[in-house]
Amino acid sequence: MVRSKLSLNSTLAMAVLSFALFLVYVTANAPTPLYTLWQQHISYNTTGIGIIFVAYHIGIAISLLSLTRVQNATTIKRLLLLALVGTIFAGALFSSAEHFWQLVTARLIIGLCCGTFVSCGISLIVKIGLQQQVHNTPLIVTLACVLGFGIGPFYAGVLADLIHPPYSSIFTPLMILLTICVVILARMQPEKELVELGHHEANGPVEEGKKSYGLTFVTVGLFASPFAIAGLFISIGPKIITTLMHTDSHTIVGGIALLMFGAGIISQLCLKNLSIGKQVLVGTVCASIGGVSILIAEVWHSAAIMAIASIFAGVGQSMTQLSGTRVLKQHLPMGTFQRSTATFFLGGYLFAAISIFFLGFLASHLGLQTATQVFLYFCFMLLGASFGGYVILHQEPAKA
Would you kindly state where each structural domain of the chain is located, as residue ranges? Predict the structure, then answer.
């Protein structure tokens, strides 16, 4: 009986892994409302915030590039244990940070850990769910990720307003919970080979040659721009809110991030049955409204409008991500699909990292408002060009 409780093939393992995934993303996003606090005693400018953001995405990219082909359950378990230990170490660095490069190192490490869970952890959870016939496993995984993204900044923001300094109070409980997950996961062993994920979901006509590459390119563009706009809220956004909107509440900063991710998951649940074309249109329009609302919020110095902007940005990012993956699944052959999916996410992360870095750099030299205008101009340019390319290349399959 004890052995069954420590099986990596069990629903207990699925629950532990899902909770661990949630904790990793909470830890990764808890720093969002804290950047302005760290600036007060570590002294770095908005370029530094951009560097911190880039470090996180470099870590994710390294993990995505190197771990996507790992299939053995025992190897995956060891990698996830390393990721959990790395997350604990990153939390310790955040708790005790006295130098800028400690923050950069912590963000790089947490990026590696998040990337490891994306590359290996999510597939393992889904495989266990299939074997145990757990319904809605993908939804469980999505909720774990998105709730971690949203709750992390809000949790940290509330404690930052209540406790001074808040760092240890924020990250110590997370490190304790992560340690419990490490202890439980370390005692689990796979009892039989986990089922392989099938690739039969591609149900549309495959596209070869130049059209395949074109579809990949435009879906990357459709995802990358809204992803970068959403990334603003968890990078330079807190600085914009506290500086231009004269709001010193970290709870508001974290709450705006929570609104964005909450809107994203609600939109996926409510709009998942729309056609791909309608999802692309909704995502493109919402991302555009979100970007324009950011500009209006800066001009009017309104945190309320910034909150509205975060809702549209969350829906835009969520819908373009969902529709982009559906386009690739529906139209590309499986050999191309795996490469294209990796390109899809890496392209989004790369554009977000570079654009946020330059946003921070420009903000240090031109001011936050001007830098945001330049940043959104390039986001709109990419989004418009990608939407035009999508309209030209993509055709909905005929329904029976």
Answer: 8-194, 199-400
